[in-house]
Amino acid sequence: MATTPLIRLSGVTKTYHLESGDFTALDNVSLEINEGDFVAIMGPSGSGKSTMMNQLGILDVPTSGELRIDGRNVADMTALERTHIRRDVIGYIFQKFYLIPLLSAYENVEYPLILKHKKRDESGRATAMLQAVGFDEAMSAHRPSQLSGGQQQRVAIARALVNDPKILLCDEPTGNLDRKTGLAIMDILCSLNKEGRTVILVTHDPKIAEYAERTIQLEDGRVISS
Amino acid sequence: MRDIFFDLSVRSVKLNFLRSLLASIGIVIGVVAISAMGMLGTNMQLSVKDQLSSDVNTIMITSDVVRTTSTAGVPVTQQGIDKSTLNDIRNGAGQNDVIPIHRTSTQFTIGSTDGRGSIYGLDPNDVPKFLTVQDGTIPKGGSDVLVGSTIASNFNMNIGSRIKIGPSTQTDRPTVRVAGILAARGMASDGVNTDNAIIAPDTWYTDTYGDKDVYDQVNVIMGDITKINDTEASIDDKVNRRTEVVRITDASSRLASISSTLGTITTFILAIGSISLVVAAVSIFNVMMMSVNERIQEIGILLSIGTEKGEVRKMFLYEAAILGAIGAAVGGVMTLVIGYSVVNAMIGSTAYFFRPESIIFVPEGMVIGMVVCIASGLYPAWRASNMDPIDALRSD
Q: Which of B1, B4, B303 faces A111 most closely, judged by CB atoms?
């Protein structure tokens, strides 16, 4: 019996209505990503990588076509349901880390747990996640501005994982890091994939893409290889 | 353990401490303005009510024809309340005390100092029924008079002082002697304001001004206040049966009228005070919009990782509420200090300041300040929660 793919795009098109005219960022894209896959999305600037990430992260909805996450059509969800999917099913890792500047490292990791359970974390999960990425208690009390780029990305990974999401979306996760730190981050992502997590990463770096089992090439909003 | 959205709001306020402080000062000024103004108006009302309510058992009857004053020795030509009408009033008043009153205003001279005030002509037997002599005795007739407390104090009068009645240009002015000084009455609701007046025996008054058996006012002092409306109706029936001869009012209706006027004044000064609160609201709105605009990327992060719109709204409303709470708390304390000083300076007494009707303006002002702050944060909070997370993340 065939399993249902975790993510399925069927003829997804995303068109932006600009003053200069309509611009199609994704053009009739169809693909499937299964649970446990490690997928790299590559392509030149303007090829539609970011638009694809926004679609997969359901920060946006397709203009036409169908996007299903975990079997559910994104277009049929309410705004609140999409918010809950972002909170519970998807973990985001951004190139610029995007930690909340007013919160400590610990609080940044605790934050998604608070969103989900509507109370402060008493389970110790936030601490455990930070320890898993190499943070001790003293480091956890620091604000993002007091951390190096590599440390911030580790906190971002801990934050992305704390609600045990099925999908890990990584947008250029090593883009703002030196090579050594970048490789360390990729090792963490590989081990997470080996534990069964679905990892989707956008990169323009072929060496980073080599970590993935599968590479999707985009050009002018279309999939040219998958 | 505190709500993380509240923590974020507190930290945002601390991060922009000076800006937040200035916005809160606006609320402080607004709360102080409306509370202190409200307290001032209420203290005025309470003060006047207390002064007037001592004479609520009195019916005042005045001629429906307006009388003009006369100079000493010149008879009054206009019609007042005549003897026949007075008898009708006595009949209508039944067992209650009826006090006919002559009144005019006059210039006078004490020593070499000129002054002006009212002069009343009263039957000496009526004086103890509603006036209190603080010093001296009630004159039984002749040219002995009583004087009010203000006039006595302003002109350094004692028992035995002499007063020349009439303008200083007049020759052969009559002279009276002070036999007693009245206790202060304040603003009396029975129309007999004696503090700045001379009270002469009715015989001396009519000998001097003419006007015998014609009265400017007749007061009826009720033995039983519950029958005041019946007595008014009875007098009205006796006197105004054919035509409107006299106007009948009582202290309670006068009190209601004055209270209504003071209420209007209080509302007006409250409205002036509330202008400062409107200015404060604009300031809070501005600060909140700045806070939203400075945190667009942070809002994008929050929304993209699964924060609900309501939670983002809550975060900004907490921030507005914190500014409001600081402003309201400081404003409440300052209202007690400033309000006390203003009431003392304007009314001359703080006897009513801590009465519930007055002190209630402090919590009311604080609540209004809070509500204004939160209302000012509504649109910025709504705007933040409805941002597109993609656009918000892209902003620098």
A: B4
